[in-house]
Design brief:
Number of helices of chain A: 10
Largest interface: A-B, 49 and 43 residues
Helix content of chain B: 10-25%
Shape of chain B: elongated
Order of helices and strands of chain A: HHHEEEEEEEHEHEEEHEHEEHEHEEH
Oligomer: heterodimer
Strand content of chain B: 15-25%
CATH topology of the domain at 94-162 in chain B: Elongation Factor Tu (Ef-tu), domain 3
Structural class of chain B: alpha+beta
CATH architecture of the largest domain in chain A: 3-Layer(aba) Sandwich
Helix content of chain A: 25-40%
Radius of gyration of chain A: 23 Å
CATH class of the largest domain in chain A: Alpha Beta
Order of helices and strands of chain B: EEHHHEEEEEEE
Largest sheet of chain B: 7 strands, antiparallel
Radius of gyration of chain B: 20 Å
Distance between the termini of chain B: 16 Å
Amino acid sequence: MANRAFPACLRASIVLLALSLQGWSSALADRIEEARDLVRALASVGGVAGNEGQVRAAIRKAAPTWVAFQDDNLGNLTVVVGSGKPSLLLVAHMDEPGYVVSGVTEQGYLKLQRLARIPLSPLFDQFHMGQPLLVQARRGTVPAVAVVHSTHLWRGNAAPLARAVLDEDLFVDIGARSPGEVEAAGVALLDPVVIARRIVDLAGGKLAGPAMDDRAGCAALVWLLQTLEPAKIHGTLTVAFSAQQVVGGRGAARLANRIEADEVLVVDAPAAGTGKSAPAPGKGPVVAVPGGTEGFSQDIYNEVAEHAALSHLPLQNAPYGMAGDQGAFAGKRPVLPIGVPVLYPGTPGEIIDAHDVVALATLLKSMAEGDR
Amino acid sequence: MRHRALVALAFAAIPGVLLAARSGREGGSFAILQTLVETPGVSTREQGVRDKIRSLLPSWAKSETDSRGNLLVAAGPEKEAKSLLFIAHMDETGYLVTAIREDGSLDVKPVGGFFETLYEGQVVQVHAAKGDVGGVVPPRPDYLDAAAGESPGAFGKEAVRVNVGA
Protein backbone atom coordinates (compact mmCIF):
# COMPACT_ATOMS: atom_id res chain seq x y z
CA MET A 1 0.00 0.00 0.00
CA ALA A 2 2.66 2.49 1.10
CA ASN A 3 4.83 1.56 -1.88
CA ARG A 4 2.04 2.40 -4.29
CA ALA A 5 1.31 5.71 -2.52
CA PHE A 6 4.93 6.92 -2.68
CA PRO A 7 6.89 6.60 -5.90
CA ALA A 8 10.41 5.14 -5.56
CA CYS A 9 12.15 8.45 -6.28
CA LEU A 10 10.10 10.22 -3.56
CA ARG A 11 10.87 7.47 -1.04
CA ALA A 12 14.57 7.76 -1.90
CA SER A 13 14.41 11.54 -1.39
CA ILE A 14 12.77 11.12 2.00
CA VAL A 15 15.43 8.62 3.05
CA LEU A 16 18.20 10.93 1.85
CA LEU A 17 16.64 13.88 3.69
CA ALA A 18 16.33 11.82 6.86
CA LEU A 19 19.94 10.69 6.58
CA SER A 20 21.17 14.22 5.96
CA LEU A 21 19.13 15.55 8.92
CA GLN A 22 20.58 12.78 11.05
CA GLY A 23 24.09 13.71 9.90
CA TRP A 24 23.47 17.40 10.57
CA SER A 25 22.11 16.60 14.00
CA SER A 26 25.09 14.39 14.77
CA ALA A 27 27.54 17.07 13.59
CA LEU A 28 25.80 19.67 15.77
CA ALA A 29 25.98 17.35 18.78
CA ASP A 30 29.71 16.88 18.15
CA ARG A 31 30.24 20.65 18.01
CA ILE A 32 28.36 21.17 21.27
CA GLU A 33 30.42 18.46 22.93
CA GLU A 34 33.63 20.08 21.63
CA ALA A 35 32.52 23.46 22.94
CA ARG A 36 31.72 21.92 26.31
CA ASP A 37 35.16 20.30 26.39
CA LEU A 38 36.71 23.68 25.64
CA VAL A 39 34.88 25.44 28.48
CA ARG A 40 35.76 22.59 30.81
CA ALA A 41 39.45 22.87 29.87
CA LEU A 42 39.51 26.61 30.57
CA ALA A 43 37.51 26.34 33.82
CA SER A 44 39.52 23.44 35.18
CA VAL A 45 42.33 25.77 36.21
CA GLY A 46 42.23 28.57 38.77
CA GLY A 47 42.81 32.22 37.89
CA VAL A 48 42.68 34.54 40.87
CA ALA A 49 43.16 38.15 39.75
CA GLY A 50 46.82 38.82 39.04
CA ASN A 51 47.52 35.08 38.89
CA GLU A 52 45.97 34.12 35.56
CA GLY A 53 48.99 32.17 34.32
CA GLN A 54 47.26 28.79 34.18
CA VAL A 55 44.32 30.26 32.25
CA ARG A 56 46.70 31.94 29.81
CA ALA A 57 48.44 28.59 29.29
CA ALA A 58 45.11 26.81 28.72
CA ILE A 59 44.07 29.45 26.15
CA ARG A 60 47.41 29.22 24.32
CA LYS A 61 47.06 25.43 24.22
CA ALA A 62 43.52 25.57 22.84
CA ALA A 63 44.16 28.28 20.23
CA PRO A 64 45.08 27.32 16.64
CA THR A 65 48.77 27.28 15.74
CA TRP A 66 48.61 30.35 13.46
CA VAL A 67 47.71 32.60 16.43
CA ALA A 68 50.65 34.77 17.55
CA PHE A 69 49.74 35.94 21.04
CA GLN A 70 51.26 38.97 22.72
CA ASP A 71 51.19 39.45 26.46
CA ASP A 72 51.85 42.50 28.59
CA ASN A 73 53.12 42.97 32.12
CA LEU A 74 49.59 43.07 33.57
CA GLY A 75 48.87 39.60 32.24
CA ASN A 76 46.64 40.46 29.27
CA LEU A 77 46.84 38.15 26.26
CA THR A 78 46.07 39.65 22.83
CA VAL A 79 46.13 38.62 19.18
CA VAL A 80 45.66 40.91 16.19
CA VAL A 81 44.17 39.61 12.94
CA GLY A 82 43.99 41.66 9.71
CA SER A 83 44.80 45.34 9.39
CA GLY A 84 43.35 48.77 8.71
CA LYS A 85 39.88 50.13 9.37
CA PRO A 86 37.42 49.38 10.80
CA SER A 87 38.90 47.95 13.97
CA LEU A 88 37.01 45.70 16.34
CA LEU A 89 38.21 44.74 19.81
CA LEU A 90 36.78 41.72 21.65
CA VAL A 91 37.65 41.36 25.35
CA ALA A 92 36.93 38.50 27.77
CA HIS A 93 38.40 38.38 31.27
CA MET A 94 40.39 35.37 32.45
CA ASP A 95 40.32 35.94 36.20
CA GLU A 96 37.83 34.89 38.87
CA PRO A 97 37.04 35.92 42.46
CA GLY A 98 39.24 34.02 44.90
CA TYR A 99 41.72 34.40 47.70
CA VAL A 100 45.38 34.75 48.50
CA VAL A 101 47.16 33.27 51.51
CA SER A 102 47.38 36.06 54.07
CA GLY A 103 48.79 34.21 57.05
CA VAL A 104 49.68 30.90 58.70
CA THR A 105 48.57 30.00 62.22
CA GLU A 106 50.77 28.31 64.80
CA GLN A 107 48.78 25.11 64.13
CA GLY A 108 49.61 25.20 60.42
CA TYR A 109 46.27 26.47 59.12
CA LEU A 110 46.27 29.01 56.28
CA LYS A 111 44.37 32.28 56.62
CA LEU A 112 42.94 33.91 53.52
CA GLN A 113 42.24 37.37 52.11
CA ARG A 114 39.48 37.63 49.50
CA LEU A 115 40.60 39.19 46.23
CA ALA A 116 37.63 40.71 44.42
CA ARG A 117 36.21 44.19 44.23
CA ILE A 118 33.20 43.38 42.07
CA PRO A 119 29.87 42.94 43.87
CA LEU A 120 29.71 39.43 45.30
CA SER A 121 27.05 37.49 47.14
CA PRO A 122 27.28 38.02 50.91
CA LEU A 123 27.45 34.21 51.00
CA PHE A 124 30.54 34.01 48.78
CA ASP A 125 32.87 33.08 51.65
CA GLN A 126 30.25 30.70 53.09
CA PHE A 127 30.19 28.84 49.77
CA HIS A 128 33.86 27.96 50.45
CA MET A 129 33.35 26.70 54.00
CA GLY A 130 33.80 22.95 54.29
CA GLN A 131 34.81 22.70 50.63
CA PRO A 132 37.98 21.41 48.99
CA LEU A 133 40.25 24.21 47.78
CA LEU A 134 43.38 24.46 45.66
CA VAL A 135 46.42 26.48 46.73
CA GLN A 136 48.30 27.46 43.59
CA ALA A 137 51.80 27.42 45.05
CA ARG A 138 54.88 28.11 42.95
CA ARG A 139 56.02 24.49 42.98
CA GLY A 140 52.58 23.20 42.09
CA THR A 141 48.99 22.96 43.27
CA VAL A 142 48.46 21.95 46.89
CA PRO A 143 45.05 20.44 47.80
CA ALA A 144 43.35 21.94 50.83
CA VAL A 145 40.07 22.03 52.73
CA ALA A 146 38.35 25.01 54.35
CA VAL A 147 37.51 23.55 57.74
CA VAL A 148 34.04 23.54 59.24
CA HIS A 149 32.77 22.93 62.74
CA SER A 150 32.31 19.24 63.44
CA THR A 151 28.70 18.24 62.87
CA HIS A 152 29.04 15.87 65.84
CA LEU A 153 29.70 18.87 68.10
CA TRP A 154 27.20 21.25 66.55
CA ARG A 155 24.41 19.00 65.28
CA GLY A 156 21.07 20.79 65.41
CA ASN A 157 22.72 24.02 66.48
CA ALA A 158 22.87 27.01 64.15
CA ALA A 159 25.62 28.71 66.16
CA PRO A 160 28.38 28.41 63.52
CA LEU A 161 26.24 30.38 61.09
CA ALA A 162 24.77 32.90 63.50
CA ARG A 163 26.37 35.59 61.36
CA ALA A 164 27.69 35.80 57.83
CA VAL A 165 30.92 33.92 57.21
CA LEU A 166 33.76 36.20 56.13
CA ASP A 167 37.11 35.40 54.58
CA GLU A 168 38.77 35.96 57.96
CA ASP A 169 36.61 33.14 59.40
CA LEU A 170 38.06 30.54 57.05
CA PHE A 171 40.78 28.23 58.34
CA VAL A 172 42.39 26.25 55.55
CA ASP A 173 43.92 22.85 56.25
CA ILE A 174 46.60 21.49 53.91
CA GLY A 175 47.54 18.72 56.34
CA ALA A 176 50.34 20.77 57.90
CA ARG A 177 50.59 21.06 61.68
CA SER A 178 53.05 23.96 61.93
CA PRO A 179 54.26 26.94 59.88
CA GLY A 180 57.36 24.90 59.09
CA GLU A 181 55.27 22.15 57.52
CA VAL A 182 53.38 24.77 55.49
CA GLU A 183 56.68 26.09 54.18
CA ALA A 184 57.88 22.55 53.46
CA ALA A 185 54.72 21.98 51.39
CA GLY A 186 55.79 24.91 49.22
CA VAL A 187 52.98 27.24 50.30
CA ALA A 188 53.91 30.90 50.79
CA LEU A 189 52.13 34.16 51.62
CA LEU A 190 50.15 35.63 48.68
CA ASP A 191 49.80 32.28 46.93
CA PRO A 192 46.39 32.26 45.16
CA VAL A 193 43.62 29.99 46.47
CA VAL A 194 40.50 28.90 44.56
CA ILE A 195 37.72 26.42 45.15
CA ALA A 196 38.50 22.96 43.75
CA ARG A 197 37.44 22.39 40.16
CA ARG A 198 34.35 20.23 40.44
CA ILE A 199 32.91 20.45 36.94
CA VAL A 200 30.04 18.25 35.80
CA ASP A 201 28.07 17.82 32.59
CA LEU A 202 24.37 18.53 32.88
CA ALA A 203 21.58 17.60 30.51
CA GLY A 204 21.17 19.25 27.12
CA GLY A 205 24.72 20.51 26.57
CA LYS A 206 24.97 22.36 29.87
CA LEU A 207 27.99 22.44 32.16
CA ALA A 208 28.30 23.38 35.84
CA GLY A 209 31.23 24.40 37.97
CA PRO A 210 33.17 27.38 39.27
CA ALA A 211 34.42 30.31 37.12
CA MET A 212 32.06 29.68 34.19
CA ASP A 213 31.96 33.51 34.37
CA ASP A 214 33.97 34.22 32.33
CA ARG A 215 35.73 31.10 31.07
CA ALA A 216 32.65 30.53 28.89
CA GLY A 217 33.34 33.98 27.36
CA CYS A 218 37.01 33.07 26.90
CA ALA A 219 35.90 29.81 25.28
CA ALA A 220 33.68 31.72 22.83
CA LEU A 221 36.70 33.80 21.76
CA VAL A 222 38.93 30.72 21.45
CA TRP A 223 36.17 29.03 19.40
CA LEU A 224 36.09 32.15 17.22
CA LEU A 225 39.87 31.91 16.67
CA GLN A 226 39.53 28.21 15.86
CA THR A 227 36.86 28.82 13.23
CA LEU A 228 37.65 32.14 11.57
CA GLU A 229 39.62 32.50 8.36
CA PRO A 230 42.10 35.38 8.85
CA ALA A 231 41.94 36.39 5.18
CA LYS A 232 38.21 37.08 5.50
CA ILE A 233 38.49 39.55 8.37
CA HIS A 234 37.15 42.97 7.45
CA GLY A 235 39.65 45.53 8.78
CA THR A 236 41.38 44.70 12.07
CA LEU A 237 40.18 42.27 14.68
CA THR A 238 41.87 42.24 18.08
CA VAL A 239 40.96 39.41 20.43
CA ALA A 240 41.99 40.10 24.02
CA PHE A 241 41.88 37.98 27.16
CA SER A 242 42.08 40.43 30.03
CA ALA A 243 43.60 40.09 33.49
CA GLN A 244 42.52 41.48 36.87
CA GLN A 245 38.89 42.25 35.97
CA VAL A 246 37.50 41.42 39.41
CA VAL A 247 39.78 43.90 41.13
CA GLY A 248 38.60 46.87 39.07
CA GLY A 249 39.30 46.09 35.42
CA ARG A 250 43.02 46.84 35.61
CA GLY A 251 43.88 44.72 32.60
CA ALA A 252 41.09 46.25 30.53
CA ALA A 253 42.24 49.77 31.50
CA ARG A 254 45.62 48.97 29.96
CA LEU A 255 43.94 47.64 26.82
CA ALA A 256 41.75 50.75 26.58
CA ASN A 257 44.84 52.97 26.63
CA ARG A 258 46.85 50.82 24.24
CA ILE A 259 44.41 49.72 21.54
CA GLU A 260 42.75 52.17 19.15
CA ALA A 261 39.49 50.39 18.41
CA ASP A 262 36.46 51.77 16.61
CA GLU A 263 34.23 49.31 18.42
CA VAL A 264 34.65 47.29 21.59
CA LEU A 265 32.63 44.25 22.57
CA VAL A 266 33.24 43.16 26.16
CA VAL A 267 32.42 39.45 26.30
CA ASP A 268 31.22 38.74 29.84
CA ALA A 269 28.25 37.43 31.79
CA PRO A 270 25.71 40.11 32.70
CA ALA A 271 25.19 41.58 36.13
CA ALA A 272 23.56 38.85 38.14
CA GLY A 273 19.83 38.49 38.10
CA THR A 274 17.74 35.73 39.60
CA GLY A 275 14.18 36.57 38.56
CA LYS A 276 12.19 35.02 35.75
CA SER A 277 13.34 37.85 33.49
CA ALA A 278 17.00 36.95 34.06
CA PRO A 279 18.76 35.59 30.97
CA ALA A 280 18.71 31.80 30.92
CA PRO A 281 21.35 29.38 29.65
CA GLY A 282 20.38 27.78 26.34
CA LYS A 283 18.33 30.69 25.03
CA GLY A 284 21.11 32.45 23.15
CA PRO A 285 23.83 35.00 23.87
CA VAL A 286 22.91 37.90 26.12
CA VAL A 287 23.55 41.50 25.12
CA ALA A 288 23.41 44.75 27.09
CA VAL A 289 20.56 47.16 26.67
CA PRO A 290 22.06 50.16 24.79
CA GLY A 291 21.96 53.73 26.04
CA GLY A 292 20.98 54.37 29.62
CA THR A 293 23.31 55.89 32.15
CA GLU A 294 26.05 53.52 31.01
CA GLY A 295 25.88 54.84 27.46
CA PHE A 296 26.44 51.47 25.80
CA SER A 297 26.65 51.86 22.03
CA GLN A 298 23.40 51.80 20.09
CA ASP A 299 25.33 51.43 16.82
CA ILE A 300 27.14 48.29 17.98
CA TYR A 301 23.87 46.95 19.35
CA ASN A 302 22.23 47.43 15.95
CA GLU A 303 25.09 45.54 14.27
CA VAL A 304 24.82 42.72 16.80
CA ALA A 305 21.08 42.45 16.20
CA GLU A 306 21.56 42.51 12.42
CA HIS A 307 24.20 39.77 12.40
CA ALA A 308 22.21 37.67 14.87
CA ALA A 309 19.22 37.88 12.52
CA LEU A 310 21.42 36.96 9.52
CA SER A 311 22.69 33.89 11.36
CA HIS A 312 19.27 33.03 12.82
CA LEU A 313 20.61 33.29 16.35
CA PRO A 314 18.41 34.19 19.32
CA LEU A 315 19.51 37.03 21.59
CA GLN A 316 18.58 37.88 25.16
CA ASN A 317 18.72 41.36 26.67
CA ALA A 318 19.96 42.15 30.16
CA PRO A 319 21.19 45.16 32.08
CA TYR A 320 24.94 45.29 32.52
CA GLY A 321 26.48 47.53 35.14
CA MET A 322 29.82 49.27 34.85
CA ALA A 323 31.61 46.94 37.28
CA GLY A 324 33.12 44.79 34.52
CA ASP A 325 35.77 45.50 31.90
CA GLN A 326 33.27 47.72 30.08
CA GLY A 327 33.94 50.38 32.72
CA ALA A 328 37.48 50.77 31.38
CA PHE A 329 36.24 51.60 27.87
CA ALA A 330 33.17 53.69 28.66
CA GLY A 331 33.64 57.28 27.54
CA LYS A 332 36.75 56.38 25.54
CA ARG A 333 35.45 54.00 22.89
CA PRO A 334 32.04 52.85 21.69
CA VAL A 335 31.48 49.77 23.86
CA LEU A 336 28.82 47.13 24.32
CA PRO A 337 28.86 44.14 26.68
CA ILE A 338 27.72 40.78 25.32
CA GLY A 339 28.16 37.32 26.73
CA VAL A 340 27.18 33.79 27.65
CA PRO A 341 24.34 33.70 30.21
CA VAL A 342 25.31 32.16 33.54
CA LEU A 343 22.88 30.69 36.05
CA TYR A 344 23.71 30.99 39.78
CA PRO A 345 26.60 33.42 39.16
CA GLY A 346 29.10 33.76 41.97
CA THR A 347 28.53 30.24 43.29
CA PRO A 348 30.76 27.17 42.83
CA GLY A 349 27.95 25.73 40.68
CA GLU A 350 27.61 28.27 37.87
CA ILE A 351 25.68 26.78 34.93
CA ILE A 352 26.25 27.60 31.27
CA ASP A 353 25.04 26.04 28.03
CA ALA A 354 27.57 25.14 25.31
CA HIS A 355 24.97 26.06 22.65
CA ASP A 356 25.30 29.70 23.79
CA VAL A 357 29.10 29.53 23.50
CA VAL A 358 28.89 28.32 19.89
CA ALA A 359 26.14 30.82 19.06
CA LEU A 360 28.15 33.73 20.48
CA ALA A 361 31.29 32.68 18.57
CA THR A 362 29.23 32.36 15.37
CA LEU A 363 27.77 35.83 15.90
CA LEU A 364 31.18 37.41 16.56
CA LYS A 365 32.63 35.67 13.49
CA SER A 366 29.84 37.09 11.36
CA MET A 367 30.56 40.58 12.70
CA ALA A 368 34.33 40.30 12.23
CA GLU A 369 33.94 39.14 8.63
CA GLY A 370 31.04 41.37 7.68
CA ASP A 371 30.64 45.05 6.82
CA ARG A 372 30.56 47.34 9.81
CA MET B 1 2.45 15.36 38.36
CA ARG B 2 5.43 14.27 40.36
CA HIS B 3 7.30 11.08 39.65
CA ARG B 4 8.51 9.13 42.59
CA ALA B 5 12.16 8.24 42.56
CA LEU B 6 14.78 7.28 45.06
CA VAL B 7 18.29 8.05 44.04
CA ALA B 8 21.26 8.86 46.22
CA LEU B 9 22.91 12.24 45.89
CA ALA B 10 26.35 13.28 46.99
CA PHE B 11 29.01 15.86 46.26
CA ALA B 12 30.81 15.37 42.99
CA ALA B 13 34.12 13.59 43.36
CA ILE B 14 37.25 15.52 42.52
CA PRO B 15 39.71 12.92 41.23
CA GLY B 16 42.35 15.55 40.46
CA VAL B 17 42.62 16.60 44.07
CA LEU B 18 42.69 13.06 45.36
CA LEU B 19 45.31 12.04 42.84
CA ALA B 20 47.43 15.03 43.75
CA ALA B 21 47.16 14.06 47.41
CA ARG B 22 48.14 10.47 46.67
CA SER B 23 51.37 11.47 44.96
CA GLY B 24 52.84 12.37 48.33
CA ARG B 25 51.89 9.06 49.94
CA GLU B 26 52.97 5.50 49.48
CA GLY B 27 51.54 2.14 50.39
CA GLY B 28 48.30 0.34 49.81
CA SER B 29 46.40 1.79 52.73
CA PHE B 30 45.94 5.12 50.99
CA ALA B 31 44.79 3.39 47.81
CA ILE B 32 42.17 1.49 49.84
CA LEU B 33 41.03 4.70 51.53
CA GLN B 34 40.85 6.52 48.20
CA THR B 35 38.78 3.73 46.65
CA LEU B 36 36.31 3.73 49.51
CA VAL B 37 36.07 7.54 49.76
CA GLU B 38 35.40 7.86 46.03
CA THR B 39 32.55 5.36 46.21
CA PRO B 40 29.24 6.98 47.17
CA GLY B 41 27.19 5.32 49.89
CA VAL B 42 24.37 7.50 51.18
CA SER B 43 22.66 5.71 54.05
CA THR B 44 20.40 2.88 52.78
CA ARG B 45 22.27 3.00 49.46
CA GLU B 46 25.56 1.42 50.55
CA GLN B 47 25.64 -1.24 47.82
CA GLY B 48 28.60 0.31 45.99
CA VAL B 49 30.72 0.57 49.13
CA ARG B 50 29.78 -2.97 50.15
CA ASP B 51 30.86 -4.30 46.75
CA LYS B 52 34.14 -2.38 46.92
CA ILE B 53 34.93 -3.71 50.39
CA ARG B 54 34.10 -7.24 49.29
CA SER B 55 36.46 -6.88 46.32
CA LEU B 56 39.24 -5.72 48.64
CA LEU B 57 38.96 -8.66 51.06
CA PRO B 58 41.68 -11.32 50.99
CA SER B 59 40.76 -14.65 49.41
CA TRP B 60 40.46 -16.42 52.79
CA ALA B 61 37.76 -14.02 54.03
CA LYS B 62 34.22 -15.33 53.62
CA SER B 63 31.70 -12.50 53.82
CA GLU B 64 27.95 -12.50 54.21
CA THR B 65 25.38 -9.73 53.97
CA ASP B 66 22.36 -9.57 56.26
CA SER B 67 18.91 -8.18 55.50
CA ARG B 68 19.92 -4.68 56.72
CA GLY B 69 22.84 -4.49 54.36
CA ASN B 70 25.54 -5.13 56.96
CA LEU B 71 28.61 -6.91 55.62
CA LEU B 72 30.02 -9.48 58.02
CA VAL B 73 33.36 -11.28 57.94
CA ALA B 74 34.11 -13.91 60.60
CA ALA B 75 37.53 -15.36 61.35
CA GLY B 76 38.90 -17.83 63.88
CA PRO B 77 37.56 -21.04 65.45
CA GLU B 78 33.77 -20.99 65.73
CA LYS B 79 33.62 -22.40 69.25
CA GLU B 80 36.14 -20.06 70.87
CA ALA B 81 34.91 -18.89 74.30
CA LYS B 82 35.67 -15.19 73.73
CA SER B 83 34.63 -13.26 70.66
CA LEU B 84 35.68 -9.80 69.43
CA LEU B 85 33.64 -7.56 67.15
CA PHE B 86 35.02 -4.71 65.01
CA ILE B 87 32.43 -2.38 63.44
CA ALA B 88 32.87 0.48 60.94
CA HIS B 89 29.93 2.08 59.15
CA MET B 90 29.88 2.14 55.36
CA ASP B 91 27.32 4.87 54.85
CA GLU B 92 27.60 8.64 54.65
CA THR B 93 25.32 11.65 54.85
CA GLY B 94 23.71 12.93 51.67
CA TYR B 95 20.32 13.20 50.02
CA LEU B 96 17.76 10.92 48.43
CA VAL B 97 15.74 12.07 45.43
CA THR B 98 12.07 12.00 46.39
CA ALA B 99 10.36 13.51 43.34
CA ILE B 100 10.90 15.00 39.91
CA ARG B 101 9.15 18.31 39.40
CA GLU B 102 7.41 19.54 36.27
CA ASP B 103 10.30 21.98 35.66
CA GLY B 104 12.78 19.07 35.62
CA SER B 105 14.35 19.84 39.00
CA LEU B 106 14.60 17.22 41.73
CA ASP B 107 13.12 17.28 45.22
CA VAL B 108 15.44 15.71 47.77
CA LYS B 109 15.43 14.83 51.43
CA PRO B 110 18.49 14.82 53.69
CA VAL B 111 19.78 11.58 55.15
CA GLY B 112 21.77 11.99 58.35
CA GLY B 113 22.67 15.10 60.31
CA PHE B 114 24.75 17.75 58.57
CA PHE B 115 24.74 21.42 57.68
CA GLU B 116 22.63 21.67 54.56
CA THR B 117 24.25 25.03 53.80
CA LEU B 118 27.33 23.01 52.79
CA TYR B 119 25.41 21.98 49.66
CA GLU B 120 24.11 25.45 48.76
CA GLY B 121 25.27 26.49 45.29
CA GLN B 122 27.49 23.42 45.01
CA VAL B 123 28.01 20.88 42.25
CA VAL B 124 26.66 17.41 43.06
CA GLN B 125 26.34 14.00 41.45
CA VAL B 126 23.06 12.11 41.33
CA HIS B 127 23.90 8.41 41.52
CA ALA B 128 21.14 7.08 39.29
CA ALA B 129 20.55 3.46 38.29
CA LYS B 130 21.93 4.07 34.79
CA GLY B 131 24.95 6.04 36.01
CA ASP B 132 25.95 9.32 37.59
CA VAL B 133 24.19 12.52 36.51
CA GLY B 134 25.66 15.96 37.23
CA GLY B 135 23.65 18.61 39.03
CA VAL B 136 23.74 21.82 41.05
CA VAL B 137 21.94 22.63 44.29
CA PRO B 138 20.49 26.08 43.48
CA PRO B 139 21.32 28.71 46.08
CA ARG B 140 18.50 30.47 47.95
CA PRO B 141 16.68 32.88 45.57
CA ASP B 142 17.97 36.03 47.32
CA TYR B 143 21.58 34.86 47.68
CA LEU B 144 22.86 37.95 45.91
CA ASP B 145 21.02 40.40 48.18
CA ALA B 146 22.62 41.91 51.26
CA ALA B 147 19.77 40.47 53.33
CA ALA B 148 21.05 36.94 52.68
CA GLY B 149 24.04 37.73 54.85
CA GLU B 150 21.78 38.46 57.82
CA SER B 151 20.49 34.90 58.00
CA PRO B 152 23.33 32.81 56.61
CA GLY B 153 21.99 29.54 57.98
CA ALA B 154 18.56 29.93 56.38
CA PHE B 155 18.92 27.13 53.85
CA GLY B 156 17.72 23.57 54.10
CA LYS B 157 14.73 21.23 54.16
CA GLU B 158 12.25 21.87 51.32
CA ALA B 159 14.44 24.68 49.94
CA VAL B 160 17.03 22.15 48.79
CA ARG B 161 16.54 20.99 45.23
CA VAL B 162 18.77 19.81 42.40
CA ASN B 163 19.03 21.29 38.92
CA VAL B 164 20.32 18.69 36.47
CA GLY B 165 19.88 20.95 33.45
CA ALA B 166 16.64 19.29 32.38
